[in-house]
Write a structure and sequence with these properties.
The chain has 163 residues and is mostly helical. The chain has a domain of 95 residues. Helix content is 56%, strand content 0%. The protein has 9 helices and no strands. The structure holds zinc ion. The site of zinc ion has 8 residues, from loops.
């Protein structure tokens, strides 16, 4: 989705001409319950032309594929893919320490994320651990997973009513 009706909100090179009311109306069309179901919400800023034509190769698709297959194997060995793991099994697989659990609850509370978002973030964090070949979820995985919920955080900050 665009950040606003004209699409330039937050773009340093093009001015957004939308009014705050227009932006609010546009963003509130995405309801909280719908947003909760979107695991990865990432801002993708417009790229300068020089970066679009940069030919420096990134990680190859074949290498990424290997990593994804290995992550799926770890999940299958646990009994289910992370997307289908029931709550208690998910929490057991994450194996958070007491300290991390406390920290995580505190962060979710401060970000005003829903109870549904709690398990969604855990699922993404566990997948990040799987992709890294690690046997438990660390605070770094939690932080990255929370980082992928930008719209929740933005809309909560804008005072959009919870769904
Ligand atoms: Zn705009």
């Amino acid at each position: 989705m665009n950040p606003c009706p004209c699409g330039h909100l937050g773009d340093p090179r093009q001015r957004c001409h939308c009014t705050p009311a227009q932006i609010q109306r546009y963003q509130s069309r995405l309801s909280g319950p719908l947003l909760d179901r979107i695991d990865l919400q990432v801002e993708v800023p417009a790229l300068p032309a020089t970066q679009l034509t940069d030919r420096t190769p990134g990680e190859s698709s074949a290498a990424v594929r290997e990593r994804v297959l290995a992550a799926r194997e770890r999940q299958t060995a646990r009994g289910a893919l992370n997307a289908h793991l029931p709550g208690p099994a998910l929490e057991a697989a994450c194996a958070l320490s007491g300290e991390e659990r406390h920290w995580f609850a505190d962060v979710l509370d401060r970000l005003n994320l829903s109870a549904r978002a709690y398990h969604r973030v855990l699922r993404v964090a566990l997948t990040l651990a799987d992709l890294a070949g690690e046997s438990r979820v660390s605070r770094g995985h939690l932080m990255e997973a929370i980082g992928y919920r930008q719209l929740d955080r933005m809309l909560n900050a804008n005072g959009a009513p919870p769904g």
